[in-house]
Amino acid sequence: MKSPRKLLMAAPLLFLLPFHALASPAYDDQPARHSNGHSCVGCVLVVSVIEQLAQVHNSTVQASMERLCSYLPEKLLLKTTCYLVVDMFGPDIITLLSMDKNADVVCHTLEFCKQDPGQPLCHLYPLPKETWKFTLEKARQIVKKSPTLKYSRSDSNICSLPFLAKICEMIKSAIKNSVPFKDVDSDKYSVFPTLRGYHWRGRDCNDSNGMAYPGRRPDNWDIHQDSNCNGIWGVDPKDGIPYEKKFCEGSQPRGIILLGDSAGAHFHISPEWITASQMSLKSFVNLPTAITDELNWPQLSGITGFLNSTSGITEDSIYLRLRKRNRCNHRDYQNISKNGASSQNLEKFIESLSRNQLLDHPAIVIYAMIGNDVCNGKSDSVPKMTTPEKLYSKVMQTLKYLNSHLPNGSHVILYGLPDGTFLWDNLHNKYHPLGQLNKDVTYAHFYSFLNCLQVSPCQGWMSSNETLRTLTSQRAEQLSNTLKKIATRKKFTNFNLFYMDFDFQGIIKEWQKRGGQPWQLIEPVDGFHPNEVASLLLADVFWKKVQLQWPQVLGKENPFNSQIEKVFGEQGGH
Ligand SMILES: [Ca+2]
Ligand SMILES: [Ca+2]
Ligand SMILES: [Ca+2]
Question: What positions carry a catalytic annotation?
Fold first, then answer.
């Protein structure tokens, strides 16, 4: 009987995805020594939440598990899967938790966490008072007697489960190709939001016509139909002039394209999903959307976001600013980002970028591989970092690709890497969302748990080892200097090239001026990514700098903006 094991794997799947994504196994050609690292993190998260829900509601573990399942939406079969898992594994978890075993012990007993020979013991919570070996053996004895644990313990692929197969395929295909799952006319633009749909690039206004898509030069001035999806088409009955010609000709429309990593795609795990004290039915409403966007929220990102910020900050994304500057730019955005992306693997998905050199408007391309060239989860982190030489050759390759694909008159801006030492400095002694209830898990604990399992998104900066943090920052600086050198020395025929520092220190100062604290700019669950506020503040710094130094990049303000608004309203929205 193999399926129960798979079912149990399915629930943590929700929580595993992020860590999978962070550690970028898709690009990992060397299998991690702790092959079960992600399962271990997922198990510890889920069991912690169950334990804390029981504590918050002063309920039994059984009731707490049912409560958690009842909160989950039915979409993607989340609720059903949860109940199946409880049926199969609830009894063991109940037995262990009611004997005061913590999540680490439970997950080691159930073998989601394993201590490989010669490897350290990985745990999130403080170790039990009795020796670990004794505690674990006792727990295993108890579970052995349990009738429910007579299944195969071999690791299996959850995607082989019939009811998860389809979801898995959808997610896998979207992740692999970075092109929309639903795209009838195959122009890489979709009418469906997630699975690389319009959350990632402008919505297709005609999904049965591959020659109608955002960013193209209007076909015959869009007299009969909107060929570039900017919502502007038809003829002004007063003078017989096509609106697209009247409002957009000479306005130099342009799109915004991001080549980025998880930070650019706005990776975000909602703290509500793991905070027992605030958990309710509302907490998981957005989980299915997030899962089908690879736990990214590009629709709220600083570069290509088009929705109003959820954080109360009033700064707009770069895309919204370009649209405001020239309404002819409506829907012309592409977020070509991937979790785990770096200069070294961009070539594997750059072809998902859509720009026709002859038919489309020029674009502003932002190259922002801000971490993964120095960040990895390996315990010997430094030798795995990209060298300046390797960076140079891959970035030149990328730029040559862009030069042969971007319309003439485009602009490319290379972003430098930040100095990530602010992560440890600002977070290490703060409580992680899982540790807030009982004041037992700080970010220092959380980081060391991920490092131990070798699934950390950035061993180099998320480490108590100051020498390692300094080395990581030094390499990041060298890589930034290499990018700067390329930008000042190299010329390309179809675009101008610029370099910009990734000024995290600058936005920290700006945030402090507004009365905020630096730690409030970092994603609370992963303790690594810039959050929505940081992303929008960075966009603000970016915009102001470009406006001041290279205004030609942004193009002119379109004097017809208010008329476009009058005739076309929201231009078909996003
Ligand atoms: Ca399409
Ligand atoms: Ca189309
Ligand atoms: Ca149009």
Answer: 262
SS3 per residue for 486-540: HHHHCCCCCEEEEEECCCHHHHHHHHHHCCCCHHHHECCCCCCCECHHHHHHHHH
| Selection from 183, 234, 180, 228 nearest residue 208 by Cα | 183
Question: What is the distance between the alpha carbons of residues 499 and 318, in angstroms, rounded to a whole number?
Answer: 17
**What whole-number distance in Å separates Cα of residue 435 and Cα of residue 457?**
20
Give me the chain's average pLDDT, please. 91
Neighbours of ion ligand 3 (CB under 5 A): 222, 226, 228, 230, 232-233, 244
Residues 346, 394: contact at Cβ < 8 Å? yes
Ligand closest to CA 179: 1
Task: Check residue 154 and report its DSSP letter.
Answer: S
Which ligand gives the minimal distance to the CA of 231? 3
- The first and second tokens of residue 507, run together, are 């936005």
| Confidence tier at 170 by pLDDT (50, 70, 90) | confident
Across residues 362-387, what is the average pLDDT?
97
**Ligand 3: distance of its center to the CA of 474 in Å?**
48
First to last CA, the chain: 48
C-alpha of residue 245 to centroid of ligand 2, in Å: 21
pLDDT, tens only, 287-309 = 999 999 999 999 999 999 999 99
Burial 93-116 (b: 16+ CB within 10 A, else e): bbbbbeeebbbbbbbbbbbbbbbe
- pLDDT computed for residue 177 by the predictor: 83
**CA 525 – ligand 2 centroid, Å:** 38
CA 435–ligand 1 middle distance (angstroms): 45
